[in-house]
Amino acid sequence: MAPGFTGSPLDRADRLRSDAEGYAAVVADWRGRLLALDGLDPVVSAEGVLTWQSVAEVAAEAELILLGLLEGKPHFVQLVEAQGDMFRSPAIWRALSMLPAEEAAIYGTARSLIDWHNGHKFCGACGGATALFRAGWGRKCSGCGKEHFPRTDPVVIMLAEFEGKVLLGRQSRFPPGNYSALAGFLEPGESMEEAVRREIHEEAGITCAAVRYILSQPWPFGGSQLMMACIAQAQGDAITLDTNELEDAMWVTKEEACAALSGDEDRRFNAPPRFAIAHTLLKIWAQEG
Question: How many Å apart are CA 151 and CA 219, to the nearest integer?
Answer without folding.
Answer: 12
